[in-house]
Amino acid sequence: MDKQANEEILTLGIESSCDETSAAVLRGGREILADVISTQIPVHQRFGGVVPEIASRKHIVNIMPVVDEALRVAGVKLQDIGQVAVTYGPGLVGALLVGVSAAKALAFSLDVPLIGVNHLEGHIFANFLADKALEPPFMALVVSGGHTSLVDVRGYNEFRLLGQTRDDAAGEAFDKIARVMGLPYPGGPRIDALAKEGDPLAIDFPRALDEKGNYEFSFSGLKSAVLNYINSEKMKGRELRHADIAASFQHAVIEVLVHKACEAAAEAGRDTLVLAGGVAANSGLEARLRREAAARGLRFMFPSPVLCTDNAAMIACRGYYQGAAGKFSDLCLNAVPGLGLTDSSLAH
After folding, report:
1. What strands, in cross-sheet order, belong to the sheet with 272-276?
2. Cα 256 to Cα 191: distance, rounded to the nearest angstrom
3. Which of 235-270 are b and which e, b meaning 16 or more Cβ less than 10 Å from the residue's Cβ?
4. Least confident of 37-51, 168-182, 209-223, 261-275
5. Which of 99, 120, 87 is nearest to 280 (CA)?
6. What's the start-to-end Cα distance of the chain, in Å?
7. What value does the CA radius of gyration of the chain take, rounded to a whole number of Å?
8. Hey, which residues does 341 pair with through a beta bridge?
9. Residue 152, beta-bridge partner list
10. DSSP 88-150
11. Measured at the alpha carbon of residue 147, what is the angle toward residues 146 and 153, in degrees to the nearest 5?
């Protein structure tokens, strides 16, 4: 395929890794013609979190209507699609299988290439949609419900994982603390909002793995410290200062994320730092990263809120650059729920 044809190719993206059913149509690598998302948040709120079996069933119901709506919004026909990109991991296995099965059926029926996309790489590539001038290399901080990673993006298809969480991800810790505090699902945005009313220095919660040059993360100890503080205050008969707890907890998480991200960028010699993943929508994290990056002379960027959360546009974008490099999948593509950032070769 010549360069001009590649720039005009229409990519259908499909995302179903957790509780969002999404389909998108991209022209070339960065022009979003449609990005349709059907959320299941109202369904799972009554349970306080995502129920995998329910999520899978909802994806089955939603997947084709969402694809049809994306095509309608984009103003194109299914026969116009030149390739199909789909998340094949990481995520909930049942949810992933719905998207992968739909993508394989569509690619087969249209006789177009199938591209298996790593969900985490998709989050990084959301930044290419947010800023059309962005080019590698740069440092990426990926912070989501299930993952916290530092990735040196050396090229469109070349990544170096510098560090990741050893236990709980940052987003997971946010949701667990929110649940203990009685805040409704999803907990991350609730903690962020409540933190604005509290004192971030009111409670000195611990930071783990803070030695220089260590780019691994650990939030289980912090989570336990917050739980112990809450239980201790209750046993002493003291009234809980929810805003201070939220602010202090969030401050501890953000301080670790920002410090390690900026140090990693400096060590790798990168002048650009990007934020990616669902927790990128956290206003406290974005503001602190912006300030620290400016103080260090780093260019900082992050996607719009809709591109921070799970969406098919970022999957289509990642798929486009894989396709441009000839990295396609065959119809034996399967869901890989535990897929990591270093396992991209499994899709090809």
Report:
1. 158-164, 148-155, 138-143, 272-276, 299-301
2. 17
3. eeeeeebbbbbbbbbbbbbbbbbbebbbbbbeebeb
4. 37-51
5. 120
6. 19
7. 20
8. none
9. 139, 160
10. EESS-HHHHHHHHHHHHHHHHHHT--EEEEEHHHHHHHHHHHH-TT--S-EEEEEE-SS-EEE
11. 150
Cα 162 to chain centroid distance, Å, stands at 17
Tell the residue number behind the tokens 């590539």, with chain if given. 125
- DSSP string of 237-288, one letter each residue: TPPP-HHHHHHHHHHHHHHHHHHHHHHHHHHHT-SEEEEESGGGG-HHHHHH
Map out the domains of the chain with their CATH numbers. Answer: 3-126+308-347 (3.30.420.40), 133-304 (3.30.420.40)
CA distance 178 to 187: 5
Q: Read off the pTM.
A: 0.93
Which tokens belong to 141? 């901080």
Identify whether the C-beta of residue 303 lies closer than 8 Å to the C-beta of residue 297. Answer: no
Question: Which residue matches tokens 């990693």?
Answer: 264
pLDDT tens per residue, range 82-96 = 999 999 999 999 999
Encoded tokens for 148: 């916290």
Tokens of residue 13, six digits: 């993206």
Which amino acid appears at position 34 of this protein?
A
Q: Token match 């948040």: residue?
A: 41
Measured at the CA of 90, the angle between CA 307 and CA 57, to 5 degrees, comes to 85
Residue 81 to residue 11: CA distance in whole angstroms: 6
Stated as kind and residue range, the H or E segment containing 225 is helix 220-235
- Which residue bears the tokens 């119901």? 61
Model confidence pLDDT, tens digit, residues 323-337? 999 999 999 999 999
